[in-house]
Design a protein that fits this description.
Residues 5-257 form the NAD-dependent epimerase/dehydratase domain. The chain is an alpha/beta fold. It has helices at 13-24, 36-46, 66-71, 92-114, 133-136, 153-156, 160-182, 212-221, 239-251, 269-279, 295-299, 308-314, 321-335, and strands at 4-8, 28-33, 51-55, 75-80, 120-124, 142-143, 187-193, 195-197, 233-238, 259-262, 266-268, 304-305. The protein is 43% helix and 16% strand.
Length: 338
């Protein structure tokens, strides 16, 4: 019999790629979805007998995961990927902060109470939990796996961006505090990806508006030559590498009790624009103008990133930014019959 893992938020961008990673390596996967309709669509998309689903309509509800774990004692690993990631809210506390923290604590409480056979838990956190805004543009600062953002709860309530950044830190801290206080019988690791690029797992998931990270690429494709490229920037990793990192971290004891910083360098929207122009010359005439500054000059203003501990644990090569952007745009181009 194959090892069974549970993946919350199974219809998500990262989650679907992660499900594929585990199925491809012989695991059985039980995913949580918000409705039977979403679950049936997931099963049809994967068409794999080792995938099943349970409905968890609201991860904020106390005991949300209890029944699923009672019904499936065969589960030995739990990957909690379900957490809100969007900036379209006027109430960050209600829509971002509370769901992220309650969802995480509900998962861990359910595992402690009803998941006796679960030995490894992964929580999908974010680079946002490590990022302090004031240090991001400080080239003498070094951010690593031990870094935390310094947002207070009241500050995180002020707007959607602060709410998201705060939600990731508060939820992750809740997980580590649970481990320290409860001393459950499972090992914990958190994965902290930066912006996640790369194709959707299924072509039919390509819609007019994509998930928050991938939409950064899509929005450049929606611009015209008369538009201005947004001044967005950050660190990135391809979604396929994020998914592989989840599997490798699950399999390796070296990941236990660690935070894993997932990134493969920085980008700017202008860099994305230039990659698109290079790899899709047929789009050159409709894209905005490129950047006046070199990437090296732009990046010299940012803090340094030290993910050496993470790379030692994971020990595999990542997709380059160019390949990630190319694969993303190629899929969008096919979907739109360019």
């Amino acid at each position: 019999m194959s090892t069974t893992v549970f993946i919350s938020g199974a219809t998500g961008y990262i989650a679907q790629h992660t499900i594929k990673q585990f199925l491809d390596h012989g695991y059985s996967v039980i995913g949580s979805v918000r409705s039977h309709a979403k679950g049936e669509k997931l099963l049809k998309s994967f068409d794999n007998s080792r995938l099943s689903y349970v409905v968890v309509a609201d991860i904020q509800q106390e005991g949300a995961f209890d029944q699923a774990l009672k019904d499936h004692p065969e589960i030995t690993g739990f990957l909690h990927t379900a957490s809100p990631f969007h900036f379209s809210t006027d109430d960050p506390e209600k829509d971002l902060l509370i769901p992220a923290v309650k969802g995480t604590t509900n998962v861990l409480r359910a595992i402690a109470d009803h998941g006796a056979n679960i030995k490894k838990v992964l929580v999908t956190s974010s680079y946002a939990a490590m990022m302090t805004f004031g240090d991001e543009m400080n080239p003498s600062y070094v951010r690593d796996e031990l870094s935390w953002n310094d947002l207070k709860w009241d500050d995180a309530k002020q707007n959607a961006i602060a709410g998201y950044v705060g939600s990731k830190a508060f939820a992750e801290k809740a997980a580590w505090e649970f481990l320290e206080m409860e001393k459950p019988g499972f090992q914990l690791a958190t994965l902290n990806p930066a912006y996640v690029f790369g194709p959707q797992l299924f072509d039919e998931e390509v819609k007019g508006t994509l998930n928050t990270s991938a939409e950064m690429i899509n929005q450049i494709l929606k611009l015209t030559s008369a538009d201005v490229v947004p001044k967005e920037s950050g660190a990135f990793l391809d979604v396929r590498d994020v998914a592989k990192a989840h599997r490798v971290a699950f399999e390796k004891d070296e990941a236990n009790q660690h935070r894993l910083l997932l990134q493969n360098g920085r980008f700017t929207s202008h860099v994305i624009r230039d990659i698109i122009a290079k790899r899709f010359p047929q789009l050159e005439g409709r894209l905005p103008q490129g950047a006046a500054e070199s990437l090296a000059k732009i990046l010299s203003r940012y803090c340094k990133l030290d993910d050496s501990k993470t790379r030692k644990v994971l020990d595999f090569d990542y997709f380059t930014l160019e390949q990630s952007i190319y694969d993303t745009v190629k899929q969008i181009a096919v979907a739109n019959n360019w």
